[in-house]
């Protein structure tokens, strides 16, 4: 079955280059790599030749917001039209381990797990040394995320709990499962919420959330804000959409942190507004 990797990107060309280098080391190389360039006209010039098919799709912003949900949908649609049966989504910051694609492909084609939403462990890298990361030593540098499952290689852990732990940094699924979920809800604009909504849709369809131990990705270091104060308006807007769709609040840790900092306030009806 044809396997396609889908990556959405805005800048971070050096991170994308290292991801490409990681794909070159894959025991199971991709058949196609779809890169969706969000408001990034210079991305193609930053890419080196690869021994597999590659499609770069350009997508404009949605006003001031990066269209993350729409970009993933466009990437998946491009891959499926090209004949892909297995879709592997990798964040531009993620470098695949040599076993990632093969492990995802095996799980996506196994009759037991072929309908599941597949996730692999994501380990975080420290800042790179002056001469950059050495792909051969990433495993010794990276630390698994403490709040998410990291089963050992060779382990496939199927569950129908913990859907809130899904995130879109690294995941995979079969073409049929993608169609069943219906892709990402494009009402989410900018940062936050669209991946939580995607997992909630999977849960509502009784799709198992399956953690694939050998599908390890390494997340390249970059500065972050905690909480992401630069995205407060996106988070509040997207959280409000999620609440309207599912009757519960996502990203509660961020919302509480924003409230403590006086960036948002909670109204009497329980909704949030940004304090200007």
UniProtKB/TrEMBL annotation:
Residues of the Galactosyltransferase C-terminal domain: 160-209
Pathway(s) it belongs to: Cell wall biogenesis; cell wall polysaccharide biosynthesis
Domain of life from the UniProt record: Bacteria
Keywords: Glycosyltransferase, Transferase
Signal peptide interval: none
Ribonucleoprotein is among the record's keywords: no
Pfam families: Glyco_transf_7C (PF02709)
Family matches, as InterPro entries: Galactosyl_T_C (IPR027791), Nucleotide-diphossugar_trans (IPR029044)
GO molecular function, one term: glycosyltransferase activity
Family recorded in the similarity comment: Belongs to the glycosyltransferase 2 family.
Protein name: Glycosyltransferase family 2 protein
Lineage of the species this protein comes from: Bacteria, Bacillati, Actinomycetota, Actinomycetes, Propionibacteriales
């Amino acid at each position: 079955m044809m396997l396609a990797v889908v990556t959405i990107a805005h800048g971070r060309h050096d991170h994308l280059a290292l991801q490409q280098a990681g794909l070159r080391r894959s025991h199971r190389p991709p058949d196609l790599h779809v890169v969706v360039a969000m408001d990034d006209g210079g991305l193609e010039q930053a890419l080196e030749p690869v021994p597999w098919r590659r499609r770069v799709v350009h997508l404009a912003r949605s006003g001031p917001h990066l269209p993350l949900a729409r970009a993933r949908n466009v990437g998946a649609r491009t891959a499926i039209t090209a004949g892909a049966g297995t879709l592997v989504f990798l964040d531009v910051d993620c470098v695949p381990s040599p076993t990632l694609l093969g492990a995802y492909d095996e799980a996506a084609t196994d009759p037991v797990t072929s309908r599941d939403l597949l996730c692999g462990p994501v380990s975080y890298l420290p800042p790179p040394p002056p001469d950059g990361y050495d792909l051969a030593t990433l495993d010794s540098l990276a630390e698994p995320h403490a709040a998410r499952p990291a089963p050992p290689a060779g382990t496939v852990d199927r569950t129908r709990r913990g859907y809130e732990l899904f995130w879109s940094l690294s995941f995979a699924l079969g073409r049929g499962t993608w169609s069943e979920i219906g892709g990402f809800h494009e009402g989410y604009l900018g940062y936050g919420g669209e991946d939580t909504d995607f997992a909630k849709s999977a849960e509502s369809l009784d799709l198992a959330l399956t953690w694939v131990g050998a599908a390890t990705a390494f997340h390249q270091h970059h500065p972050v804000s905690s909480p992401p104060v630069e995205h407060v308006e996106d988070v509040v807007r997207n959280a409000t959409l999620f609440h309207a769709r599912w009757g519960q609040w996502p990203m509660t840790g961020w919302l509480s942190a924003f409230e403590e900092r006086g960036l948002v306030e909670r109204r009497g009806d329980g909704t949030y507004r940004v304090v200007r």
